[in-house]
């Protein structure tokens, strides 16, 4: 390493007491056990409540991940409306709501509406007071049915198509050529309109 001008050379000191500045992590196994016991205690306190909240099935961002389904932040207000669940009721039933999310496809919205309906069918709402059940609470017959605390799994990311024979029309169809023609039509649409209008004006001027 070179130095500019006639300056004093550096005298680097590497014999400092670095052991005092090292952070240790000897309590990691104990913390792991403590977190596990806390999760068990919380699960026991929750009783028959689901282990996790219900979240929507959404597509990952970008072309790299949009073929996969994952759990999103919360259901949209449109999905809740179609499933017949109000926003206030959803918060009490373990359904997460995200008012900022928007539905960009009919298929994605339908998946989450079906997810909400399936959750409602499996849901058993116990009354807060035994003698005074509310209208939204489950019937006495439903309360005696066996319950599960596992949440709904995510649907498959795509439905595989059954194998079939290719028709003659599909063999004759040229996808590459069709796409190129559509792109060319979109690209030259403005110029062709101007040319057609100019031609009409010239023909009108000749008739006069």
Automatic annotation (TrEMBL):
Q: Which UniProt keywords apply?
A: Ribonucleoprotein, Ribosomal protein
Pfam families, per this entry? Ribosomal_L13e
List all Low complexity biased stretches.
Answer: 143-152
Family recorded in the similarity comment: Belongs to the eukaryotic ribosomal protein eL13 family.
HAMAP family according to UniProt? Ribosomal_eL13 (MF_00499)
Q: Which GO terms describe its biological process?
A: translation
Q: Which GO terms describe its cellular component?
A: cytosolic large ribosomal subunit
Q: Which PANTHER family match?
A: 60S RIBOSOMAL PROTEIN L13, LARGE RIBOSOMAL SUBUNIT PROTEIN EL13
Task: Name the Gene3D superfamilies on file.
Answer: 1.20.5.110
Q: Origin organism of this chain?
A: Lactarius akahatsu
Q: Does the keyword Aminoacyl-tRNA synthetase apply?
A: no
Q: Does the keyword Ribosomal protein apply?
A: yes
Report the protein name in the record.
60S ribosomal protein L13
User: Segment Disordered: which positions?
Assistant: 127-167
Which PROSITE patterns would you find in this protein's record? RIBOSOMAL_L13E
The UniProt entry, under InterPro entries, shows: Ribosomal_eL13 (IPR001380), Ribosomal_eL13_CS (IPR018256)
